[in-house]
Amino acid sequence: MQSKVYLVDVDGTVCEDVPNEEAHRFASAQPLPGARDAMQALVDAGHELVYFTARLPEHADVTRGWLSMHGFPFPDNLLCNKPRSLRRAYVWVDNTPVTAQHFGGDWATHTLF
Prior knowledge:
By secondary structure, the protein is α/β, with parallel strands linked by helices. It contains 2 helices and 3 strands.
């Protein structure tokens, strides 16, 4: 199996969905059940993990701290300022093959490989 780079959203994907307008809740957000284990499984399978979030750069430290506190692998691999979709679909155009997955909200039934 070829190693991949997984870009994983934070809010609504690894933790409860906290909007930027409620940034005071970032540090106390609840992790989604099974999210940490799913991220660890990616790393254990040899993949790279990067958290990609619409949180602003000024929230990077609290986000890294939250990821670390909850045992998520590679909490320093964080990219902020993802455009906010506001429930619109993202379209990614790249010269490298891209595979996208929509997370339906339940790690118990979602598969990543």
